[in-house]
């Protein structure tokens, strides 16, 4: 499945594109080096596809914006 902006991705949808373990994604997210997830409760974590595409374009230099700095209307 190709990535397109405007979608929310479960980890199972995200994994084939990023090729990282869940723990690595969470560690990078906490460090601001991976897009911040949207959490809809303790068992529902989703990522915005536009943010993931931005990360894929330059994962080495990606820095997640603080929640109020987002350019995606968050």
From TrEMBL:
<dbReference type="InterPro" id="IPR010260">
    <property type="entry name" value="AlpA"/>
</dbReference>
<protein>
    <recommendedName>
        <fullName>Transcriptional regulator</fullName>
    </recommendedName>
</protein>
<dbReference type="Pfam" id="PF05930">
    <property type="entry name" value="Phage_AlpA"/>
</dbReference>
């Amino acid at each position: 499945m190709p990535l397109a902006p405007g979608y929310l991705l479960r980890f199972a949808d995200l994994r084939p594109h990023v090729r990282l373990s869940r723990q690595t994604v969470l560690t990078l997210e906490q460090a601001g080096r991976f897009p911040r997830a949207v959490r809809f409760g303790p068992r529902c974590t989703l990522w915005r596809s536009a943010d993931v595409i931005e990360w894929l374009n330059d994962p080495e230099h990606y820095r997640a914006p603080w929640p109020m700095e987002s350019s995606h209307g968050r």
